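Can you give me the bound-state structure? Components:
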Amino acid sequence: MTSKQRSAPASLATVAAAAGVSIATVSRIVNGETRRASAETIERVRKAIAVVGYHPNHAGRTLRRRESRLVAMLAPNLDNPVMAAIAASTEAALRAAGYVMILCDTHDRPDLQDEYLNAMRSQVVRGYIMVASVPSAVLKDFVADGAPMVFVNRRPPFGRGAFVGIDNIKAGAEAADMLWSAGLRRCGVLAPAQGSSVTRDRLKGFCNRMRALGVTEIPKAEAAGRSHLEIGYEAARQLAARDGWLEGLMCVSDQIAYGAYRLARESGILVPERCRLVGIDGNPLNRWIAPWLRSIEVKYEDFGQPIVELLDHVWHGRGHAERIMPHGEA
Amino acid sequence: MTSKQRSAPASLATVAAAAGVSIATVSRIVNGETRRASAETIERVRKAIAVVGYHPNHAGRTLRRRESRLVAMLAPNLDNPVMAAIAASTEAALRAAGYVMILCDTHDRPDLQDEYLNAMRSQVVRGYIMVASVPSAVLKDFVADGAPMVFVNRRPPFGRGAFVGIDNIKAGAEAADMLWSAGLRRCGVLAPAQGSSVTRDRLKGFCNRMRALGVTEIPKAEAAGRSHLEIGYEAARQLAARDGWLEGLMCVSDQIAYGAYRLARESGILVPERCRLVGIDGNPLNRWIAPWLRSIEVKYEDFGQPIVELLDHVWHGRGHAERIMPHGEA
DNA sequence: CTGAAAGCGCTTACAG
DNA sequence: CTGAAAGCGCTTACAG
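Here's the bound-state model for the whole set.
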């Protein structure tokens, strides 16, 4: 109701002039420094703010305070549902704490990660949330500098750092149990080639458990690809070509299971009757359109809260804590 | 290799002192104002920048220039794959043009949309990309103020504005053709209750085409719910209870089709043999795990480029253009 | 209870 | 080719 067409935006000075007080006073009131200020002045300033249509300019505040309310999240691959769930919940938790999240898509590339880290530093962001980070030169510098960071899913590639994620070894073991308890003995694993620590731990947990159960041979296929969907398809193809269709396949992620499913369907293999698929992640879509998939469920929509808590720890210099999130079957 | 542990970051002044020149000179060189400057000075400054580990502080620049390189995208519901695809492609296009995107999740709520619009203005963002915006008080003010905006998918709720989206009426008509050409005559539609213009147009296009083909009765179910998945499930339930299972169902979005699929499966109805489902959006996941769904494909990953182009138009005062994106069958 | 003043880091006309 | 200076909007010790 107040704004003028494209005129210069109102500043503290505008308000001060309109209210007949100093900008210091306006600043205090804007910032809720209400305890020392006469009720009358407060009222006059509030009115002036409404009249001139004042909105604070964070560039000024950031410059002065040498810190902003911005928090950067760097994540690979926005269209991965796991990332989307983490991003959505973190965004909500940060907003509740009075912060604004900047979401950067690194495409899992070290060069883009570095570009964004630099860009975010230039924005004077207050913290960095690294989801599935990748080793890179600038990241190394940031860690060495003690930049406030929380790592999610993948552990920090350099030194120590706050971390939120699940126990992937345990998750892998439970995937093994799923297949075993269904009576399946000849099972294989599908994974991305040169996977992250997440992949490695899930594989390790699975294989160790299987061996503990007495299974000595665990056929494995690793493939490269632009997405886990393609990786799953290709890895399943390699495995089927080599060992035929096994009774069960443990897929390192649900998306890999989707890829394997497609090949099975195209090959006339019934899932889960002829070949059972087990995944990890618990994509919420499963119960709607992939009822054939059993999966170790991870509640990524619960990650936001602990992520923000750990960031708070780091800000207060309380060291690098960890939050190992629970997971279940689904 | 240069950064010190948590010391104050280097500023232009630091560099200037180290290089023995004025901060004006450093500023020019940092900004590539290289034409007027001796090669020797440039070299000296470059060296000093590396030595002190200088990185620009955008708060200072923004304050001075009264504009930033930040662009805000406000979108409902980050975990909707349609939004994810639009966000990812826009982010890439903006980055290529030298901007940084801030992604805000409005949860389709007017109050959050307003909160974010205000917050983004405080960040001095240079433009606003409103994906599926909702009518709200602050949005109205922004539009009246002539804030640089591009609307995506849903048309601007107030006045005129730049727009990127598809021809939803045509898409609805083509969905009708899909069912008709498969020989199906008794078909219904599933939609969200109180849908947006997108929903209305898709419905309108579908019904008009069906009527043109001689179909007089088009059973329709509209349901409310937290997600299109639930809406699809519930709408299908209502329709089946009222009219039994029809030969075909046109679902206003793929997610609605997923919901309907779940009910069909639970009801022992074979899809697509007994009941054919047609959706709109062309979720890339379909070819992997939902081969039973035919869908009008929209290339949301192509939206980023035109969105940034229109933003550019607006910035240069070239008025409010539109880009109607193509769609196809899939 | 309130204000004058310094200064955060940067850009940019202006002078030389 | 380079620099001194003003000023963007804000916060905050300090003085009163």
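A couple of observations. Confidence is low (pLDDT under 50) at residues 1-5 of chain A. The CA atoms of residues 44 and 103 of chain A lie 39 Å apart.
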